[in-house]
Amino acid sequence: MVTHVHAEARGDERGALLAFVEAQRGAIRRSVLGLTEEQAASRPSASELSLSGLLKHVAETELGWVRLARQLPPAIERTEENWGDSFRLVEGETVAQMLAFWEKVAQETEDFIRSVPTLDDTFPLPEAPWFPPGGRVSMRWLMLHLVEEIARHAGHADIIRESLDGKISFELVAEADDA
After folding, report:
1. What pTM, to 2 d.p., does this model score?
2. Regarding predicted confidence, which is higher, 43 or 175?
3. What is the per-residue pLDDT across 57-92, written as a single tens digit (0 to 9) for each?
4. What number of CA atoms fall less than 13 Å from residue 50's CA on the CB side?
5. pLDDT tens string 100-122
6. What are the percentages of helix, strand and coil residues in the chain, rounded to 5?
């Protein structure tokens, strides 16, 4: 049972990009399906990654990129001191809260992308050693980057979930469809 991203309406590039981002979001959402908070926070490998931490990270990262594209200040300030908190739930945070938070972020992303005059519009990249000085990227680049970022972590989530209880993504798709 393979998940399939439906074809966009003719000429709806925005819809296609949003659909591919949503498909990757779904893979991470399904990775926490049926788990306790403790299971979702566990780290079954040598990696520091957990499913709840990945969920939080991708939600914060998506919000960060959309705010950057909108040329707004970050909603969540991350520094060297608190960077690790973007990969783990801290006191009082739950998987359900992170899922609800990400749902709001996803809606903000869709509203923004649907509102820009063209996907060719650009925004400045922040100063960082990994970005070119004075670099700019398009809204299309932003959406492709979100597909890349979320898909990378969806792969991590697949491995972590299978390590926890042996469930693979196809089983989780079936469970989500039955829910």
Report:
1. 0.92
2. 43
3. 999 999 999 999 999 999 988 888 998 899 999 999
4. 20
5. 999 999 999 999 999 999 999 99
6. 60, 5, 35
Distance CA 49, CA 56 (A): 11
In the numeric block, the tokens 């509102």 are attached to: 115
Mean of pLDDT over the chain? 92
Is 5 in contact with 19 (CB distance < 8 Å)? yes
**Cα 37 to Cα 15: distance, rounded to the nearest angstrom:** 34
Distance CA 89, CA 174 (A): 27
Q: Long-range contacts of range 152-155, CB-CB < 8 Å, 24 or more positions apart?
A: 153/28, 153/54, 153/57, 153/58, 154/24, 154/27, 154/28, 154/31
Give the H/E segment covering residue 137. Answer: strand 136-138
Report which secondary-structure segment, H or E, holds 122. strand 122-124
- % of the chain surpassing 70 pLDDT: 96
